[in-house]
Amino acid sequence: MKELAIGILASIFFSVTFILNRSMELAGGSWMWSSSLRFLFMVPFLILIVLGRHNLKQVIVEMRKHPFLWMWWSFVGFVLFYAPLTYAAAYGPGWLVAGTWQITIVGGIFVAPLFFQTIQTDQGLIKKRHPIQTKALYISVIILIGVMLIQLPKAKDLTLLEVTVGILPVLLAAFAYPLGNRKMMELCEGRLDTFQRVLGMTLASLPFWIIISLIAIQQVGPPTTDQLIQSFIVAVCSGLIATTLFFIATDRVRLNQGKLAAVEATQSTQVLFVVAGESLLLSSPLPGSLAWTGISLIILGIVLHSFNVKKIGVKNKEDGRKLKQSV
C-alpha cells in the first residue's frame, strides 16, 4: 500500500512534464531542447545528492563492470522514453500524450516474460521466465478504458497528423520506460540505492543528450530563457522528484511482478493531474460527463490494484509460514 501511495505522489510530479512540454511547444520551443535540457539539468543535482550520501564511488564501480549494458539500458529507459514524449508534445495536446502514455501500465506487464526468476524444484534451482500477471492485466485494462473515455470527447477535434505523430512515439516510450527500468534493477541487483541508479542511468545516457543538443543548436539555435526556466522546473519536479519516488516504489517491489504491475499502474493518475493542470494553466475546458466516467474507472482500477497487492502480501506471508513449518 505504501508503494502505491508513493507511485501516485510520483504521478503528481510527473504530470508537470506533459503540461510544461506542451506549454514550451506552444511558445515555439524545440522538443530537442525540452528533452535534453531536463537530463542535463539533472546531472549536477544528482551528483551533489550522491556525494552528500558518500556513495559516488560505488556508482562508478558498478558502471565500469558493465559499461555497454549501462549505456544500452539507460538509452532504452531514458532516451527512448523521454525523447519520443517531447516530440509527441509538438503535435498533440498534453492530455493526448498523457493519456496515450498510460499504455505503459500494460507495457510493464507484457515485458515480464523477458525476465527470469529462480525457483527451487526437486531437481534443484532452475530459472523460469516470469509469467504475465493476468489479474493485474485485467485491472489495468479497466484503467485504460477509463483513460480512453477521458480522451474521447476531445479526440473528435484532432487532425490525422496529431493522432499519428502524437500517439506512435508515445507507444514506443510506453514500452521503453518499464523495460529499461526493470533491466537496470536486474543489472544492479539491489547493490545501488535509487539515487545512485538514477545518477548512473543519467550519466550513461548523457552522450545521447549531448548529441541531441548539438543537433538542436544547428537546427533551431540556443534555447530561449523561457524554455530554460520551464525545462529546469521539469528537471526538478519530474526528473529528480518524480523519477526518484517512482524508482523507490518499484525497487521495493521488484521481486514481485504482481506488485510491480500495480505500482506501474499508479501512473494512470497522471491523466487526472494533467487535465486539471491544463485547465488551470493553459485554459483547457474541464472534462464532461463521459470524461468523469473515465476518471471514476481510473480510481476504481487503482483501488482494485491496492486490494490485489494486499492479497498478494497475505499470500506471501502464508507461503512463508508454510515453508518454515516444512523445514
From TrEMBL:
<feature type="transmembrane region" description="Helical">
    <location>
        <begin position="158"/>
        <end position="177"/>
    </location>
</feature>
<feature type="transmembrane region" description="Helical">
    <location>
        <begin position="229"/>
        <end position="249"/>
    </location>
</feature>
<keyword id="KW-1133">Transmembrane helix</keyword>
<feature type="transmembrane region" description="Helical">
    <location>
        <begin position="95"/>
        <end position="116"/>
    </location>
</feature>
<feature type="transmembrane region" description="Helical">
    <location>
        <begin position="198"/>
        <end position="217"/>
    </location>
</feature>
<keyword id="KW-0472">Membrane</keyword>
<dbReference type="Pfam" id="PF13536">
    <property type="entry name" value="EmrE"/>
</dbReference>
<dbReference type="InterPro" id="IPR032713">
    <property type="entry name" value="EmrE"/>
</dbReference>
<feature type="transmembrane region" description="Helical">
    <location>
        <begin position="68"/>
        <end position="89"/>
    </location>
</feature>
<feature type="transmembrane region" description="Helical">
    <location>
        <begin position="37"/>
        <end position="56"/>
    </location>
</feature>
<keyword id="KW-0812">Transmembrane</keyword>
<protein>
    <submittedName>
        <fullName>Membrane protein</fullName>
    </submittedName>
</protein>
<feature type="transmembrane region" description="Helical">
    <location>
        <begin position="136"/>
        <end position="152"/>
    </location>
</feature>
